[in-house]
Amino acid sequence: MNYRRIGRWAAGIGAVAVAGAGLYWLKERATEKPDFITVEEDGLFSVRRYPPILVARTVQPGGRDRALGQGFGVLAGYIFAEHREGDEIPMTAPVLAERRVGQGWTVSFVMPKIYTRDTLPTADPGVEIAMIPARRVAVVGFAGKVDDAILAAKADELAAWIARRGLQPDGEVVHAFFNAPFIPAPARHNEIWQPLAD
Prior knowledge:
The chain has 198 residues and is of the alpha+beta class. The chain contains 3 helices and 9 strands; from the N terminus they run H-E-E-E-H-E-E-E-E-H-E-E.
């Protein structure tokens, strides 16, 4: 067995994989994201003001991980025109997930700014087109792969930061995921959003 040749082959495959991931990461950096104004910044924490955000959303039962996976599939079917006529809708970031007490999770895709409610294709069954109203949100950003424990810990950190500043939460915490699952964990960007009372 020619171990040197196998080693060169494996190294070549690895280099192609890394290059492909790098190109996709660069493409993701250029992905459209909602506009916002930074009101305050403190390390990983900030307060932002968002204008109204048009989203396609679906409510899925079960735990966060299962609901997010199912919701992503439903919404991807809508934007990629798998069950409808018309053009595909460009993917944006982030994917938003919000717990609905007793009903599972709401999973939302932000719609590109070129669309309005009237110009979006008709929603698939199980998909709702909605407008998130303008709001002020406190945010903590962090890198890496997420699980329920990490998300809960980051939400607690954000809640403590909000309390220290005398701000008032208003509504449920939102998880914001900016990257595809195959992006290496250290390169992934995630955020916790806590809407604030005005």
